[in-house]
Amino acid sequence: MNVHYTGATDTPVRQITITIDGKEVSVPEGSTILTACNAAGKDTPTLCYGDTLTPKNACRVCMVELEGSRVLVPSCSRKVQPGMVVKTDSERVRHSRRLVLELLGSSVDLSTTPRIPEWMERYDADPDRYGERAGESRRRDVHEPGEHHAGDGSVADTMCQPIKIDNDLYVRDYSKCILCYKCVDACGSQWQNSFAIQIAGRGFDSQISTEYAAELPDSACVFCGNCVEVCPTGALSFKSEYDMREEGTWDESQQTQTTTVCTYCGVGCNVNLHVQDNKIVKVTSPHDHDIGHGNLCIKGRFGFSHVQSRKEDGDG
Amino acid sequence: MDLKFSNAEPFAEEREAIDRRLGGPGEGGWHGGERDEQDHRRAHTGHAARSRRHLVMEALHAVNDRVGWISPGALNYIGKRLSVSAADVYSVATFYALFSTNPRPKRVVHVCTDIACMARGSKEVCASLEKRLGPASAMTGWKHSPCLGVCERAPAAMAVEAGDPPHEHLIGPATVEEVVLALNVGPAALAAEAPPMMAVPQAGQEGLMLLKRVGRVDPESIDDYLATDGYAGLRRAFEMGPGQVISEVKESRLMGRGGAAFPAGIKWESTAKQPATPRYLVCNADESEPGTFKDRAILEGDPFALIESMTIAGYAIGAERGYIYLRGEYPRAFRMLRNAIERVRERGFLGADILGTGWSFELEIRRGAGAYICGEETAIFNSIEGYRGEPRSKPPFPFEQGLFNKPTVVNNVETLCNVPLIMQIGGAQYAKIGTEGSTGPKLFCVSGNLVRPGVYEVPFGATLGEVLELAGGVPQGRTLQAVLFGGAAGGFVRADELHIPLTFEGARANATTLGSGVVLAFDDTVDLSGILLRIASFFRDESCGQCVPCRVGTVRQEEALLRIMHNGHDAAAKGRDIRILRDVGLVMKDSSICGLGQAAWNAVESAIDRLGVLEESKSR
In chain B, positions 326-385, which contact chain A (CB-CB < 8 Å)? Predict the structure, then answer.
């Protein structure tokens, strides 16, 4: 089901009041605890939450303590109910957030995930205490659910695996994947309806994959890049960005963003042009735009190279 | 929907197996005929095909049963027939341990290495197999398996031969010779399985309520069933009407026997009250908790009892259809249930207008395919619907939005099988059996190092010591070391705690849990740290992978235990690892989506705190 934005409606929405860390806060009925936390000025870490997607609540980094609940609850998906009493910084919440960050940090390359160092510090997380990280595995695309090689515990198992570059448009570096399902949902029924990727395998050996790990050009992928748009960790990145990072020339402080209307057809999707050194380096799409909600097609997302094919060599 | 598939085509036998299960091409879904270049390898299908998504697992079973594995062509064909993308079918196929997406031989033997079998020599069997056949892997034909639910005959194995029809055979106690025979000649060459009554040492005794027919009747004969009070419960229910049936079940204070001990009557009532229809009934027969085999004893020994019980439950909640979700490793139970459903349908106990009441009810068996998590009450819905068995977030609860997002009751086999008894004697009378907080008879899965392991029926209230005594105690010359309650998700108690009453309240008062009724005894020959490691390994394998605390936490738990066992002499390192175990355990308990992750640390925690197991390993 697609996410609908709460625009102006005829019927007034009831306000629900809950208590967060001892203070009352009111939000419209149907909002999540996360919305209420934001309204109360609580900075809640999130990873698998996406503003254009149905909450999957898989990463469990936004957990809060809800009075009367045996376990912690995910703030990104739990709807507010009148009278809820929520704690966002109790010892249990801090422990849970710390451990989720440690478990992810010890198993996934979070080097391109925004805000990770800040959160690690805030929650005093020490992902290194699980031991030296295991090296690259070449078997992550072979699925034998219910079986694993245990080793002797001297290294911490990781997602580390070879990077997948099988096309000119985007790169899949699953060593950075936290299995948040956002790309799967964007590719599937929530937006693109291409169904090219899914979670394959089970448990720690799960992996975002096409059927039999087929390369993207042989899969159902239509190269809309909407999966890249929602990826929270940089596991999916545009080839243009990936190449510049490899060269060491990627520099966000030198980039400008310009929002404009895509010129390929009459739908009217908005595009954000990320420009560095007077060159478009990648194209994203505003998530709050009524037409595209952050989605584009292959042309709007990747068809920009003609803009910068200037005849600088003196022949025109 | 406009799905794109690769050019891979199914082999003839794969196509035939899938068509047999789904109906021939043209009978709904994509026509399945030859395609030309014009359609760009795309399947154009409508709502009719998409509404059959729930048959994905069934189609995968059909191929896996026939060929032994699922090729890209077969996968494509399933996707085209059911209008599901290839990546999606692949994601389902790679979730279940009994399915293979890699080529493998037609014959495979799954050798149980889980805790009950470990206590009874599975390690030795595996060591000999390794010498004889090479290391365990699909290609050498033998694989390690989690608990097969044959703990009374440990060590157990399951031999499978793909074909038409496939052969499946539970072996117990398994010997190297039998495994080799099953691989070289086929499971058909094995001696017949022990009869169902062998799992029930009390079989034939007077006074049994749940197991009264096991060993006394032919489990394939409906006449035997009818001659022993069969369908008296349903007739009584029809006299009462649905509302009264629910009242009686509430009054009986029947609590769920699957592990969560939720009052069944309340579950039924809240589902029956939902305005949305249709409502569904799901029987959780995915008995996979290590050490649990009580449901198998009923399913194999008295399958009609479950069918009658489900019919009563379906009548009470106003359901039109019920599903029995049976674990894939119970081949004989599958045959027995299938036969029972056919027989009762012939006699008008199932189908349209049952016994002339005008009420209609259908039952369908759905087979799991090797995933412990599917016993979780919402994962079971996803699996029946043809998805990966990933648990859903609650709320909404099953009584609001369960199977196919409709109000649903999920009950365990044993829970349901109490219902005919409640109908016959009435809820008030039933509530007098057992104790105040735990009413009725209870089945215990008593296994491990005992003289007569098996399923035992006792009224709630017996102590641990009494139940162990029923099973003959530990063999002469050995001493009891510890007992595990509730399986891998349960907890250990010490050998000096035999006074613990086996009731819900008694377990709670002693800070432990009855869980699914597992009473697994370990004598002094068992290395408990090895058992702990097996439990940790089990949870790592069976975690669905959806949420971080469980997906990564179960890995870190196993690694920490491995480190402690490999260098237990380094006290500082061990202290750090126990700290890790506690920290990881707490986040799994507090923040996992479902009960699997929340319980994944229970047994290890109880072993550290109650038994001091990891302390011991320091001195070794």
Answer: 370-371
DSSP state string for B167-192: EEEEESS--HHHHHHHHHT-GGGSPP
- Choosing among 1.10.10.60, 3.40.50.300, 3.90.226.10, 3.40.50.11540, the CATH entry for B222-431 is 3.40.50.11540
Please report where in the chains the tokens 């940090």 appear, as a residue. A105
Q: What is the pLDDT of residue A123?
A: 98
Annotation: CATH topology of B528-619: de novo design (two linked rop proteins) (1.20.1440)
Contact at CB, B542 and A203, closer than 8 angstroms = yes
B residues 54-113 closer than 8 Å to A (CB): 72, 75, 85-91, 94-97, 100-102
Secondary structure of residue A293 in the 3-state scheme = coil
Report the pLDDT value the prediction gives residue B568, as an integer from 0 to 100: 74
Establish, for the pair of chains A and B, how many residue pairs have beta carbons separated by less than 8 Å.
205
CATH topology for A170-308 is N-terminal domain of TfIIb (2.20.25)
Strand partners, B325: B284, B366
Query: Is there a contact between B97 and A99 if contact means CB atoms under 8 Å apart?
Result: no
Query: Are B276 and B134 spatial neighbours (Cβ–Cβ below 8 Å)?
Result: no
pTM to 2 decimal places: 0.95
> CA-CA distance, B312 to B304, in Å (whole number)?
12
Is residue A14 within 8 A of residue A28, CB to CB? The reply is yes
Quote ipTM for the complex: 0.95
Between the alpha carbon of residue A295 and those of residues A71, A264, B396, B568, the distances in Å are 36, 14, 30, 54
B474: left (phi over 0), alpha (psi -120 to 50) or beta: beta
* Dihedral over alpha carbons B156, B162, B168, B174 (to 10 degrees): -30
Give the whole-angstrom CA distance, residue B318 versus residue B407. Answer: 10
Task: Give residue-wise pLDDT tens across range A273-309.
Answer: 999 999 999 999 999 999 999 999 999 999 998 888 7
Q: What is the pLDDT of residues B142-172, one digit of tens each?
A: 999 999 999 999 999 999 999 999 999 999 9
Fold of the domain built from segment(s) B441-523: Ubiquitin-like (UB roll) (3.10.20)
Helices (H) and strands (E) in chain B, counts: 27, 15
Task: Give the burial class of B369: count Cβ atoms within 10 A of its Cβ; 0-12 exposed, 13-18 middle, 19 or more buried.
Answer: buried
Residues of A in contact with B95 (CB under 8 A): 145, 201-202
Which chain B residues are within 8 Å of A100, Cβ to Cβ? 548-549, 587, 591
Contact B101 A212 (CB under 8 A): yes
Residue B405 to residues A118, A276, B320, B398, Cα–Cα distance (Å): 40, 49, 15, 8
Report how far apart, in Å, the C-alpha atoms of A270 and of each of A230, A234, A275, B129 are: 16, 22, 16, 64
B75 contact residues in A (CB cutoff 8 A): 211-212
